[in-house]
Structure formats: structure tokens, C-alpha cells
């Protein structure tokens, strides 16, 4: 299991919460800067696919500072989006962003465990997860909970980092992700482990067909995926 703080005896869940609380003040800046703004394009692609389903009740799992929820609210105007995360400080920033955009009637935030959701079964039309499932302590537990809270026929839209496999993107990506990105992250963030954990967590995460197999094992009836930006990220659409 990949963890942020290798010398800590805390669980991965506790370490991830600590890490994101530590970097919350710089997260949006670093996220958009280090991805060269491409993360916004990835979210827009996911939202276009989400719009086809016209869901009215959405759960944004591992919402962070709410970028996915905000993008969905602005594009679709659903009845309700609940953003859930284990990092209180990340959601505090998200709530400020939502207030500035006057989206409080649509988006709300709450602290919660992504692997033990408080919601009743068959409750949501759709779920979103942007770059969060690789932080689950137990991937199967998290995916099974998503299946449980989705209505029959509901879909989970999951954006996650993956790994390019073709020359020269693979080599350029590996150099940037393992050398430049951690150095910049450490420069601007007070948490020196966070941006070393990022490439480590991506390396350890099952992507492509391997993730589809995990989704099927968790109970999804069908999962399709699309590689984005030469495979740097992947959009999974998992149907209950």
C-alpha cells in the first residue's frame, strides 16, 4: 500500500486527510499549474458525458476543493450535489468558491469516509470522483460503496491519473512526474511528502483494463474507459 508518510504509524486514511489539510492552501494553484491547466479539460470532458444522463442528485466523492462539483453545477444546474471528503480544510476552500459563485443552493459539503458512506442504498443518480479513488485505503470497499448508493442504472464518473505507454510521451511523462513535479510541489507546499506521494500512488494504481476488472468485481455491470491526453489520465464510466 502506498502511503504519504512512510515513517508514520497512522492508517492511510488518516495520512491522506493530514496531507490534504496541509496542502489545502496551495492545492488549487499547484493542481492547475502542475497540470498546465489540462485538468480543467479533463473535467470538462467528464461533465459532457455526465450531462447526457441528466442526473439531478449527485455525490462528488473525494470532492477536495469542489472543482468537479462546481463544473457540474455550472453546466447542468442539477437539483443537488453533495461534496464529500475527509479533508476539512480542502472543503473550507471549496465552500468559499461556491459562495463566490452563488451556488450554495446546489452544492453542499460534508466530512465523510468515502469507504463507509452514510447515505442509504439506491439514493444517487450519479457519482463523481476526480483523482480520488487512488487515495482510498481499500479500493474495493470504496467502489462497493459507490455501487451501493447509486440508483439502479446510475453511473459513476471517475477521473484518475494513469500512465502513458507509448514513446516518447511515456518517457517525458515519467521524467516530469517523478522529478519536476515533486520539486515544484515541495517548493510551494509546506508538506514535502505530498508531491512525492502523488507519483508513487499513480504507479501503484491499477489503470485501464485492470481498473475495469476492479469495478466489475465491486459490482458494476459495465465499465467503459477513455484515455485522455495520451493516457496521462483516464475517464471511467461505470454503470450499476
The pLDDT mean sits at 93
How is the biggest beta sheet arranged? 7 strands, mixed
Kindly identify the CATH topology. Answer: Rossmann fold
What would the principal axes of the Cα set say about the shape? globular
How many beta-strand runs? 7
N→C terminal distance: 27 Å
Question: What is the helical fraction, as a range of percent?
Answer: 40-55%
Q: How many individual domains?
A: 1
Uncertain regions: pLDDT < 50 for 5+ in a row? none
How much of the sequence is in beta strands?
15-25%
Count of DSSP H/I helices: 8
Please, what is the CATH homologous superfamily? Vaccinia Virus protein VP39
Summarize the structure in words.
By secondary structure, the protein is α/β, with parallel strands linked by helices. The chain has one domain (12-239): Rossmann fold (3-Layer(aba) Sandwich), CATH 3.40.50. Helix content is 47%, strand content 20%. The chain contains eight helices and seven strands. The chain has helices at residues 12-34, 38-51, 67-76, 88-100, 139-149, 169-188, 194-204, 209-218; strands spanning 57-61, 80-85, 107-111, 124-130, 150-161, 222-228, 233-239. The chain has a seven-stranded mixed beta sheet, with helices on both faces. Helix 4 links the parallel strand 2 (80-85) and strand 3. Helix 1 (12-34) crosses helix 4. It is globular and about 45 Å long.
